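Attaching the record inline, Q. Sequence:
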Amino acid sequence: MNKARNMSLQTFLSHFIKDERADRRYCFIIGAGASKQSGIPTGGELAEIWLREIKEIYPSEDVNQWMKKEGIDEKNPATHYPQIYDKRFEIDPKEGFFFLAKTMEGREPSCGYSVLVQILANTEHKVAITTNFDSMIEDAMFTYTQKKPLVCGHESLTGFITPMIMRPLIAKIHRDLFYAPKSSSSDTNELHESWKKALTNILNIYTPLVIGYGGNDGSLMAFLESLEKIEGSVFWFFREKDGEPAEKIKNLLARHNGYLVLIEGFDEMMLQMNTRLSYDLLDGKIIEMAMQRAQRYKDQIEDIQKREAKGNDTAKALKETIGKRKRDWWSVRLDATSEKDIEKRDKIYTDGIKEFPKSPELLNSYAIFLWKIKKDYDKVEQYYKKALELDPNSANATGNYANFLYEIKKDYDKAEQYYKKALELDPNYEISVGNYALFLNTIKKDYDKAEQYYKKALELDPNSANVTGGYANFLNTIKKDYDKAEQYYKKALELDPNSANATGNYAQLLIITGRKEKGKKLIERTFNLKPEVPALLAELWFYRYANFYKEYGETAYEELVKLIKAGVRSIGWSFKKNIELARKEGHPFIDKLEKLDRIITEDAPPDNL
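Structure, as predicted:
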């Protein structure tokens, strides 16, 4: 008879990395031992706790009779986990659920799980089968990767499991903690038929790597013992301090030409695998993802604050919540943005900067206020530079300064340097990606690259109204794909119905595609939204002067002259189609339209207006 063979971890890792079979797929079978380093007791440790409690609850004579009947070895209670669970919680079975929930509450996946989920997310080895109720694998998946797994925490979900799985699969054969987990002997002695079918299909394709599982539940172990074939053998990992696996495990490995692999622990094994796979440590990524989530959260709060009318219930509730916060730079910003009086808002910012002089975030926020509201461009640059001195690695401030150099200083070379630096600092910040796409479109005229960046920004955040609207503009003015542009304008307005930018730009599309009356109504709506971007105001007045001359003629021209003399431009925008339509309709001053076009979109000299 064959025997279970021993293999060193180093030999296994070399085999795993250098496996030449293109169709080789491994799956992980994860037991309670893998969660030990996450602060969750193993099945054996829980059995010891419950056995002590049983002795405290029941008379010793009754306990001795019960242990003798069940054949429980006090030195190895793990082998009788289900029977011990039954006895401990026989008075109130629901108490068992609450015990497990309390035990797992607040636990975080250990570093080994970060490697496991990267393998599940980034390789063909996409399956994790677990007897655990805890959420360590899915928590790690959400924390360390951008992939969303299929979590089957109940046998009724096994119909969604297919042999050739496209996304990571977490198969929780004893159910999830919140789906009536199976801990009792009657539950764990037999695997549900639907699981048997699903796991048979998986193990016909995937070679199992068993980690932290002692084979004590009966159901999974009995299922493995029943299989005639397991693809590519079995690798069973065990810790020396736990002793060699039970004879039934060795017999299973012998029958399938499997291997016993000695490891120090789950985390230690996974970190060695991490090195072999050339994965980086994830401390930087954890911070980056947390900062991105925090920024999105802040953006959403500020967007609600900006949209809600002063004095309504939402505004009152938000103000009350802000007032209860521990005072920090964001509290100052929220106070400032809720203040309608510009001078009072300025004072809130300057007082806040005295209170938090070392806050690059607050300096960055004040620079935006000085730029967009106060138009104090000298001070803007001063505060951006202060913010970047305090935090040279702020992708947000770097990207904002790039926008300022592009839109106001017209220093395009320097702007591109800062755009590229912002993307180096955070390549996945969709706002920076979208802004660079706009720069590539309007200034560099690199339309292929611009489209790549627009698409990347939308992949990063499909629900960004700004990026969606920006891509719509690109499709409208550069690609001339008006049908597709209209789809994106409509989506942008679904995402943000009060976006003046998207409303005004969609108005232009409607005008140049023969729907002037609808376009006219959208121009009126845009003005009613009180747009703060001067370039948009110039565009709106141009549409009125070009395509609604009889109604707005001289008024529109006067407004355009005022804006131009104030330095307002919309570099890279296109009025060509509006001018074509104006010419067809007999506009009396085509020469003026063309001159205004050159001044506004190309920054030509504003002579003889």
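Residues 252 and 294 are 49 Å apart (CA to CA). The mean pLDDT is 88.

More tomorrow.
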